[in-house]
Write a structure and sequence with these properties.
The protein is 49% helix and 13% strand. It is of the alpha+beta class and 416 residues long. It has a 4-stranded mixed β-sheet with strand order 1-4-5-8. A 4-stranded antiparallel β-sheet has the order 2-3-7-6, with no helix packed on it. Helix 7 packs parallel to helix 9 and helix 7 runs antiparallel to helix 10.
Length: 416
């Protein structure tokens, strides 16, 4: 099912290394996470760090793998095979937070934070969503007041994946309430020892065991050296973070859905009804065909987008659109795959005899977090309209509107 023919030998080896990591995870560990007996998969992150499988795109000089998105998506898919939450935790620490540091961090910040993250010794969480909003980034009410060379941080963030286990928190806060929205916020690297409090209070439907927590800042003193990027310049950081948050999520979701297809297909070759294997009924086998097509289509989009981003030749706005398309399309296809698998399995798929019910619970998160799919549609249409206006102005493409018999009929094209 993997697109082996698009991989280099080194990428195949990377995939195999990740598969070995996934096979290392004990079955009981997965079950204990789903039962909330394990609140954060520290042991998994330690092992991933030992195998140099955290920070795939982080430069080698800071402890990372030194790869590109085309490498990252291969690992992301495999990481999620034992459960979506493994990829969520791995991605937040090793894709999202490190992205801010690599692109906007000072040399001192990179040397201090990146190596322990990549080694699996320290863990990070991104603090964006608040009680009053998630997708409304500039509507944040968490504040950071200047006090000499420090900032005093106050506020709350919620639904923070990895929050319960994190040592570091990438926090967005208002630093100028009078400034325009896009110049009102600052990004900080905040350490738990600075006084951060977390509460593991959510009884989640799925994706459990990943330390999803409420994060509380009460007069937390943060030195100015911990500003990531510029003061009042968090908008630039956030725009960069859209790619790993949303594109990374898309790649991960394929891995979480893949076992549903495999389990359902295997079941259809064993289960018999009316004297034959149920795969011999088109009502079943056509669902399997649909699942295969959906996952392959999702991969095609992921691999194309990864190549576009890695090329450095595609403008940022197009990359944002492609990342948003990937997040929306892939998560919706994978949600369908999970439900089709349950339909193939029938009643037993609704029980905990097979992990299909858990996959369904887990994947419901995919179209909600890191920006809802409705927000993805907002970005997609916005960027496309801009691109279309530029195309019209350029005049390089054929104007297909004129290819109709009465294209020039008087009084027919009325727009107001």
């Amino acid at each position: 099912m993997m697109f082996d023919y698009l991989m280099t030998l080194e990428q195949m080896q990377l995939r195999n290394e990740t598969r070995e990591l996934v096979k290392w995870i004990p079955r009981e560990y997965i079950l204990d996470m789903d039962a909330d007996k394990i609140k954060y998969p520290k042991e998994f992150m330690v092992e991933a760090g030992k195998r140099n499988l955290i920070g795939i795109r982080v430069p080698k000089e800071y402890g990372g793998r030194g790869g590109q998105w085309q490498d990252d998506i291969i690992v992301a898919e495999e990481i999620c095979v034992p459960g979506y939450i493994f990829g969520c935790v791995w991605g937040v620490t090793g894709d999202v937070v490190v992205e801010a540091l690599v692109h906007f961090g000072t040399e001192e910040q990179k040397r201090k934070y990146l190596p322990p993250i990549c080694k699996g010794e320290k863990y990070a969480a991104e603090c964006l969503t608040e009680p009053r909003g998630g997708s409304d980034f500039y509507g944040a009410t968490t504040t950071a007041r200047r006090d000499g060379d420090d900032f005093i941080l106050n506020g709350q963030k919620r639904f923070i994946v990895g929050g319960e286990g994190a040592d570091y928190f990438l926090v967005y806060a208002k630093t100028d309430t009078e400034a325009p929205a896009n110049r009102s916020m600052t990004c900080f690297m905040v350490e738990r020892d600075m006084g951060v409090k977390t509460e593991y209070i959510y009884n989640l439907m799925g994706a459990r065991g990943g330390g999803t927590a409420r994060v509380i800042f009460e007069d937390v003193r943060v030195p100015k050296e911990n500003v990531v990027g510029e003061v009042n310049g968090a908008g630039k950081v956030f725009n960069q973070m859209m790619i790993p948050e949303r594109f990374g999520t898309a790649a991960m979701t394929i891995g979480a859905a893949r076992p549903a297809l495999e389990i359902a297909a295997d079941y259809s070759t064993k289960r018999k009804a009316f004297g034959t294997q149920i795969k011999n009924f088109q009502a079943v086998s056509f669902k399997v065909a649909e699942m295969v097509t959906k996952l392959d289509s999702a991969r095609a989009m992921i691999y194309t987008t990864a190549r576009a981003i890695d090329s450095g030749q595609v403008k940022a706005s197009r990359c944002r659109r492609m990342a948003s398309e990937s997040k929306k399309f892939v998560t919706e296809q994978c949600w369908d795959v999970a439900n089709l698998a349950m339909q193939v399995m029938g009643g037993i798929g609704y029980t905990d005899v097979y992990p299909i019910e858990k996959i369904v619970r887990d994947l419901r998160l995919s179209s909600i977090w890191v920006g809802t799919n409705e927000i993805m549609s907002l970005i997609i249409q916005h960027e496309y309209y801009r691109e279309r206006l530029a195309e019209i102005a350029d005049g390089a493409k054929r104007n297909s509107e004129l290819d109709a018999l009465n294209a020039f009929a008087e009084g027919e094209k009325i727009y107001e």
